[in-house]
């Protein structure tokens, strides 16, 4: 999939123009500190949210057009948006983050790529660090439609992070974007090590 072409065409249907309501609620209830990564940051809403909550946040996206649009949308934090590959992070990003804020990156990837995503996160998240994710557990696709977003049932989420992570929190959020109510799960994982 050519993500940059999707941005150039403006086909970013997942972009709701604001940060994820479950992530907003989580950060308000559970203050966290440190350096945060937002993989597949797109237009940068979760990066801006993280900065508002005092985090030293970095948004990473493989699409140069998405990064350019994030920088234009949030010029006061433009330096926090970088083009990069979650699967093959630059050396300076390895072991550099205390937490990861996940929203729509993994659900946009074909299920065959989930292991590659996990390996990339393992390279960037410090042992003891938190992976705070809002996961699409039920995107309600039409019959025969494949995605993205790709369904990520809870057993598959559990299996992906079974080894090397412990579940800290896990629930269906009581806040969501319209049409996503009950279709997402907030799960916080701590990287063991």
Verbal overview:
With 193 residues, the chain is of the alpha/beta class. The chain has a domain at 21-136: Rossmann fold. 27% of the residues lie in helices and 25% in strands. It has six helices and seven strands, in the order H-H-E-H-E-H-E-E-H-E-H-E-E. The chain has helices at 3-9, 21-29, 45-52, 64-73, 114-124, 154-160; strands at residues 35-39, 56-61, 81-83, 97-103, 125-136, 165-171, 184-191. A seven-stranded mixed sheet has the order 3-2-1-4-5-7-6. It is globular. It starts with a helix and ends with a strand. The mean pLDDT is 92.
What is the structure about, briefly put?
This protein is 27% helix and 25% strand. The chain is an alpha/beta fold.
Which key phrases capture this entry?
alpha/beta
> Could you name the CATH homologous superfamily of the domain at 21-136?
Vaccinia Virus protein VP39
Gross geometry: globular
Q: How is the main sheet built?
A: 7 strands, mixed
Percent of sequence in beta strands: 15-25%
> What is the SS-derived class?
alpha/beta
Q: How far apart are the first and last residues' alpha carbons, in Å?
A: 34 Å
Q: Can you lay out the helices and strands and say which pair or pack?
A:
Blueprint: H1 3-9, H2 21-29, E1 35-39, H3 45-52, E2 56-61, H4 64-73, E3 81-83, E4 97-103, H5 114-124, E5 125-136, H6 154-160, E6 165-171, E7 184-191
Parallel strand pairs: 1-2, 1-4, 2-3, 4-5
Antiparallel strand pairs: 5-7, 6-7
């Amino acid at each position: 999939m050519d993500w940059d072409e999707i941005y150039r065409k403006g086909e970013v249907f997942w972009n709701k123009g604001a940060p994820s309501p479950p992530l907003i609620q989580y950060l308000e209830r559970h203050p966290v500190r440190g350096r945060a990564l937002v993989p597949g940051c797109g237009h940068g809403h979760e990066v801006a949210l993280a900065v508002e909550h005092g985090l030293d946040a970095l948004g990473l996206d493989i699409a140069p057009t998405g990064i350019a649009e994030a920088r234009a949308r949030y010029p006061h934090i433009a330096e926090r948006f970088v083009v990069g590959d979650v699967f093959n992070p630059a050396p300076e990003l390895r072991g550099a983050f205390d937490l990861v804020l996940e929203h729509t990156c993994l659900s946009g990837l074909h299920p065959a790529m989930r292991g590659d995503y996990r390996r990339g996160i393992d390279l960037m998240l410090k042992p003891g660090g938190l992976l705070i994710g809002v996961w699409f557990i039920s995107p309600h696709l039409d019959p025969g439609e494949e995605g993205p977003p790709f369904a990520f049932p809870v057993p598959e989420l559990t299996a992906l992070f079974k080894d090397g992570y412990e579940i800290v929190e896990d629930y269906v959020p009581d806040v969501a974007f319209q049409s996503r109510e009950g279709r997402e799960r907030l799960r916080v994982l701590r990287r063991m090590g």
